[in-house]
Design goal:
283 residues, alpha+beta, Helix Hairpins, Heat Shock Protein 90, five-stranded mixed beta sheet, three-stranded antiparallel beta sheet, 5 helices, extended
Amino acid sequence: EAREGTIEGLWKVGDLTRDLRIQSILIPGMGGEPIGRILVFQDITSERELDRAKSALLSAVSHELRTPLAAIKGYTTTLLAEDVDWDPAARREFLQIILEETERLTRLVNNLLDLSRLEAGALVLQRQPYPLEAILARVQRDLRVDSHPISIQLPPDLPPVDVDPARIEVVFRNLLDNAIRYTPPGTPITISATIADGVVVVRVHDEGPGIPPEHRERIFDRFYRIPGHIRSSGAGLGLAICKGFVEAHGGRIWLAEDGPGATFIFTLPTWKDEDGGADFDRG
């Protein structure tokens, strides 16, 4: 008996794999009996990749929420225990851990909100002339990194950048967080900047193992994480948000081909004075 229907499956040719949806539609004759069939082939690879990305996001976010929440609950319960009188040093240590885990939750929630705004086209930039060194000072203060020495190398005549400082702080914070996560403790991280073709070119370099070649093209994809890496954690949102924020400012971001280590490079517009020239005296 002839039937109509829809099936989905994988189509493989060599190294190429695609998700296909095949729909069968009968063509009725004058008497109503089928006289032919139409097969409609639809490539649904993007749709399936989005479904897989959503599943990966839910899994990653669930894990990322569970870890700090467990720490916060555990140390709060410990502090509230009536049968133990903790000394001030121990209480301060527990409270510091609670603070750090709360900040970790805040960053995750902010990343999710930022990604939502970027994808909805609802990101509003509060641009102003701002010295890059001031942005970096705030990032260093908030990160409180003790495990990796951070070197900042900026030329003395670097002009202020025309940016939303809060968004560019997120870019630096995410890049530094990645560098810290994927490199051994004690290895240095270098942030440098130069002027080229009227824009500020920023480099964030670490001396870790670098990004494997097979993952270079996808590292800026949302939800993407390097599989099997012992330090691979997070929801895979950081670099996607970096890309979105930099491009919203009219810049671009990429991974340098040279090694060792990983070097992320991005551009930012310089502040123009009323005459249209770069203002080198601000900040």
